[in-house]
Structure formats: structure tokens, C-alpha cells
Amino acid sequence: MTRQVFLDTETTGLDPAQGHRIIELAAVEVVNRRLTGNRFHAYLNPEREIDIGAQQVHGISLESLQDKPLFAEKAAEFLDFIRDACLVIHNAPFDLGFLNNELGLIEMGKVESVSAGVIDTLKMAKELHPGQRNNLDALCKRYGVDNSSRTLHGALLDAELLADVYMAMTRGQESLMMEVGTSAEMAQTATFNRQQTLIVQAASEDENAAHEAYVKGLKDAVWG
Question: Which among 98, 140, 80, 90 is positioned nearest to 118, based on CA atoms?
């Protein structure tokens, strides 16, 4: 079973080193390239102001977060959700920087210590489409993913859109792996067939005598 978790955050600003915090965190589960419906989603009280530029991107106000839990109250649940999964994130250094900063503030280690690895889809997209726009909106358009409901950034919606985009980006790789797997299975079957025990049945005395008489008749016809 291949378990992946597609993850996104919204924040108060751009740099956790300047005290910025996570205000929305979402993660959706994909198993064997299918959304399972399992997800983690939380709005969080950052206990600080939100930059105007950031609020214009996600539309989340500090007033709407006053009754929301602190990151510390949701951290254990979040870590349990992503445990042993491969994380897929668009611009992974940004989100991981914020997540590891939040975890560090409450002395709960790092995301990488519980996950099975991280895939950065922005890095993938830049390698596939060098010199082109590779933000999430551009990738949705390029791969035919409907993002008409994305008027503002939102962690849950963006995580789900990213899952659709990633499936489209890697569809050819999946087909290739299926072909390789099929070839390997055929080779294994062929090897097994070659190793099967052969059954040898000896000729009877009458059959041997008839064969010798037939061979003698051929010699007489050719050399007689």
C-alpha cells in the first residue's frame, strides 16, 4: 500500500524566523493514487497579527481565529495523521519551515522524523516545465484540473487540488511502472516454467524393435 498525504498551510506572513505563525493547516490522504476521504484540517489561533499582504491572499482575519485552538493543541493529532506517510507539498521548504518552527516551539521534533519522505511538486514542475509559471493555478490550467472555486488560497482546497495535479503530472510514470511490473511478472512466470520437472517416458521393447527394423529398412533402401 502506498500512502501519501498532500499538505498545505496558510500563515500570518512569509518568514517564521520573524515570528510568523500557521493559521490554517490541512492534509488529505491518498492511498494507491486515490483520495480516501480521510483528512486533517484545522484553523489555528496564531496569537499575533496577520500581515495585510497575507490576509489579501487567504482572506483569513485574526478576529475569525480568536476562538480557534493553538497549534500546540492540535500538534499530536496532526503528527499521528502524517505518520509514516510520504508528504507531497507544493514549495515544500516553505511549509516545512513553518511546521518545524511550530513543532520546535513546543519541543515536538520535526516533521521529517515521523514522515516517510517529502515530495516537492514545485521542484517537479520546474523540472518538467522549465521557464514557465508553475504555481498551483498555472498547473491546474496546464493539466485540466478544475480550480474555479479557488477565489482565495485555502489550505484544504489547495491540498485537494494539489492531489489532482500530482496525479495528472505522474500519470505517465504510473503507466510505465505498470508496464515494467507486467514485464517482470511475465519474466518470473517464464523462469518458473523453464524450471519445471520434465517427465521422461521410456519406449517399450516392442517399440524399440519396431524402430530398429525401420532404421534397417532405411539403410537397405539407401545403400542396398
Answer: 90
